[in-house]
């Protein structure tokens, strides 16, 4: 090859390197072995990351595109540890102390087919969060089959919760936080609407929360979140960050949005949701003062506990 061609090839490679954005770096490989860390945030991330590995690391990229899904919740296909996918979901229910309260004990006692049907029919994202928090030994958290219970706890009893109720649009995100959206297709709540709803009502509300396992504000400027029952598995979600650590252009859903379809592909984004609250993990020195309720217990609310959001 002539010197001229070598120089041209080198210049082209340099230009491509500058034009092509650097790939995001998954923080999970360095976290999975840190389950015994002294940091509560690291223990949370380590537990979530190890489960993400077992499900072969599916993800939703920063543009809302789904990739890497190999196994679904209902399948008998093995995860990376050789366990059937649906059996792992049962482990989340059982390990969080919630299998009985969700009605799964009877179905699973009836045999594999009935137990597998329980997995298919019962949303398990809150059971996954509960399993992670119990595995990570986080005080101030009670297992719940419903996300809204611990979201409500953070709002009404801020001094007793492991998390602070914060606006995801204005708050910097960090490892160990939970980012949550409301799953009501007919309307959007947002931060203020969710606060108003849970301040005066004990009624259920369909929600979903993901765990923040890492946040890079320097190079990639991406937050990495892991959630259960996302695309029928344990899936990572990437969301863009501003330099100050807040979410940048958090993809939100609003009434009247164009529906995703082959004719409206620009509207297709698996992360476009009614993101309503960021639950900020308290500093370690505050967490140690909190009691750890037994898994599966429900908080008995009183009028005096209904504190306004901080």
Short recap of the structure:
The protein is of the alpha+beta class. The protein has helices at residues 3-19, 28-31, 40-54, 85-95, 104-109, 112-121, 125-135, 147-156, 190-199, 284-287, and strands at residues 59-60, 66-67, 163-166, 178-182, 207-216, 222-230, 233-240, 274-281.
Could you characterize the architecture of this molecule?
- This protein has one domain (39-290).
- The chain is built from ten helices and eight strands.
- The chain has helices spanning 3-19, 28-31, 40-54, 85-95, 104-109, 112-121, 125-135, 147-156, 190-199, 284-287, and strands at residues 59-60, 66-67, 163-166, 178-182, 207-216, 222-230, 233-240, 274-281.
- It starts with a helix and ends in a 23-residue tail after the last helix.
- 40% of the residues are buried.
- Mean pLDDT is 88; it is low at 11-21 and 295-310.
* Uncertain runs: 11-21, 295-310
The domain count comes to 1
Query: Number of DSSP strands?
Result: 8
Helicity level, as a percent range? 25-40%
Overall SS class? alpha+beta
Read across the widest sheet, the strand sequence of neighbours is 2-1-7-6-5-4-8-3
N-to-C series of helices and strands: HHHEEHHHHHEEHEEEEH
Largest sheet: 8 strands, mixed
What's the arrangement of secondary structure elements?
Blueprint: H1 3-19, H2 28-31, H3 40-54, E1 59-60, E2 66-67, H4 85-95, H5 104-109, H6 112-121, H7 125-135, H8 147-156, E3 163-166, E4 178-182, H9 190-199, E5 207-216, E6 222-230, E7 233-240, E8 274-281, H10 284-287
Structure characteristics:
single chain; 310 residues; alpha+beta; eight-stranded mixed beta sheet; 8 strands
